[in-house]
Amino acid sequence: MKKPIIGLVGRFEKKDFDSIFIHDEYRVAILNSGGIPLLLLPPYFEQMKEKTAFYDDITFEYRELMIPLLDCCDGFLFSGGSEWFGYEEFIFQYAYQKNKPVLGICLGMQLMACTFYFHEFNSDKTVPIKSNILHQSTKEYVHEIKIMDSKLKKILGSESIFVNSRHSSCILKNDFFKVSSMSEDEVIESIEIPNKKFMIGVQWHPESLFWKDDYAKKIFQAFLESCLDN
């Protein structure tokens, strides 16, 4: 049986730029859901030091270098973190244009929501959370989310679940995505890109709950199954 190849988007550690990381929980979740993880790395270095904005002056050259590798992938996973870079935006744009499945987690969800708006507004369109509900915690389960009618609800088979939470900012609504779940304080907890095979972003970390939580497993299983259709 064919196993889908999942591009795991590596991210620079901006403190000193001497490492590119992807937490191993993502790799393990992909492997145990029936996929083959493939680490995707940026094809340039010096420009990373400047800022997180998309580098239009070098974009074309480096896009051409990345496309053959992206063509090998059946889907893409964008992980959590603190800041994304231009090559990550390009990978998402590629997936969007090719209708290849995407799972965005935490910062990865925020990237999905903001990529096509970044240059127009010169902002990533995220805001600090001000709430009486704790959203940044090391606890296994932190708060409940309510799930609207959506692809995510069909996957999970539930109107509400408890999730972990390790984020200090949240996204604002825009017309590009559909909100599929929210916390009690109306922080957006998951999104879907309409009219695409599978483009779901979640603000929590199902990879950290994979071995204990059936809902986390269902998310990865549905993602991998969608990648088999390519």
Describe the structure.
The strands form three sheets. Strands 4-1-5-6-13-12-11-8-9 form a nine-stranded mixed sheet, with helices on both faces. A two-stranded antiparallel ribbon has the order 2-3. Strands 7-10 form a two-stranded antiparallel sheet. It has helices at 24-31, 59-71, 86-98, 107-114, 118-121, 151-156, 214-227; strands at residues 5-9, 11-12, 20-21, 36-40, 75-78, 102-105, 126-128, 143-147, 160-163, 169-171, 178-183, 188-192, 199-202. By secondary structure, the chain is α/β, with parallel strands linked by helices. Residues 52-57 and 119-124 have low confidence and may be disordered. Helix 2 crosses helix 3. The protein has one domain: Class I glutamine amidotransferase (GATase) domain (Rossmann fold). It has seven helices and 13 strands. 29% of the residues lie in helices and 23% in strands. The two termini are 14 Å apart. The longest helix is centred in the last third of the chain and has 14 residues, at 214-227. A hairpin with a 4-residue loop joins strand 11 (178-183) and strand 12 (188-192). The radius of gyration is 17 Å and the shape is globular.
